[in-house]
Amino acid sequence: MQADQQCRDRQRLVARPLALSDVALLTARFDAIFLSRVRGRISAEPMTRRGEFAPPEKSKKSVLRERRPGLSLPALGSSAGRSNQSLLSGLPEHLLGRLFEAAKLVRLRADELLFLAGEEGDGCYRVEDGLLKVTMVSRFGSERILALLGPGDIVGELSMIDGLPRSASVVAVQSTRLNFLSRAAFEHFAKQQPEIYKSLVTVLAARLRETDGTIAAGSFLPLRGRVACTLLELAEDFGQDVGSGRILIHQKIGQSDLAAMAGIARENVSRILNDWQRRKLISRLSGYYCLEDKARLQSEAEL
């Protein structure tokens, strides 16, 4: 029955030019698939508890209870890192630049909430400076961070396109400047530039493929593989080559952060990291993790 529905959707899309409703339909289905898988993972796995976080509230005050020096993240979770790019981030540069020409500047303080899961989505945001984390929390208090977002990344576009509530919460890790694009402004731009729909469908397909890979890695990799994936993705997004093949992750991240990113208990992360430090795979310099042997970590991360 699901296959028949997909066939009818495909025939309808081929029969006429793409429109916003088509992209919204595909986006909503992608979102439903992704969230069902992530929620299943959160409820099934013993992950970092959310004890240092206040319960979600309908206000944009700080939701963090614990602050550490630098850019320590209060509980990162998921192996998504920043590789899971926004749908709009994949648009051609000439379209993306014009899309945000009239955007409104928004400023967030460190630990300030941008929006909560379940809220109405009236637009999206592009990060100009700073760092955000995208998070989901189970009813038992376990947290999973879906992504870290830095300059150039876009967040909130799913709700803007499909009209459904926000699927996750977003919090500023440090002082952040964003540009806000309203749904009305996006729809007006799309009417003038209909080629945007084809680009969105292409990016959506790539994002779904990437999500399948992320879910597979989380399902089949052993604990060491999950931690290795997390470190490698952080190194890809925030790494700095410091010579001799060593890569410094230029964000301060604690063990509880890595545990929530990898989706495993902090005690397991501690044992794995201690073993890798003894074997010279990684080191920690002034609170920053450094990959000493990337090739060996990559072998740990293979399915």
Question: How would you describe what is shown here?
Answer:
By secondary structure, the chain is an alpha+beta fold. The protein folds into two domains: 2-220, Jelly Rolls; 223-300, Winged helix-like DNA-binding domain superfamily/Winged helix DNA-binding domain (Arc Repressor Mutant, subunit A, Orthogonal Bundle), CATH 1.10.10. It has helices at 2-15, 20-44, 93-99, 157-162, 183-192, 196-220, 223-238, 255-262, 266-278, 294-300, and strands spanning 104-108, 113-115, 123-129, 132-137, 143-149, 154-155, 169-172, 176-182, 239-243, 246-249, 282-285, 288-291. A four-stranded antiparallel β-sheet has the order 1-8-3-6. The protein has a four-stranded antiparallel β-sheet with strand order 2-7-4-5, covered by helices on one side. A hairpin with a 2-residue loop joins β9 (239-243) and β10 (246-249). α2 packs parallel to α6, α7 (223-238) packs across α8 and α8 (255-262) packs across α9. The radius of gyration is 20 Å and the shape is elongated. The model is unreliable at 37-84 (pLDDT under 50).
Keywords:
single chain, 303 residues, alpha+beta, Jelly Rolls, Arc Repressor Mutant, subunit A, 4-stranded antiparallel β-sheet, 10 helices
Question: What global shape is seen?
Answer: elongated
Q: So, the CATH homologous superfamily of the largest domain?
A: Jelly Rolls
Question: How much helical structure, as a percent, in the residues?
Answer: 40-55%
Query: N-to-C SSE series?
Result: HHHEEEEEEHEEHHHEEHHEEH
Largest sheet, spatial ordering of strands: 1-8-3-6
Described by strand count, sense and barrel closure, the largest sheet is: 4 strands, antiparallel
CATH topology of the largest domain: Jelly Rolls
Supply the CATH architecture of the largest domain. Answer: Sandwich
Name the CATH class of the largest domain: Mainly Beta
The structural domain count equals 2
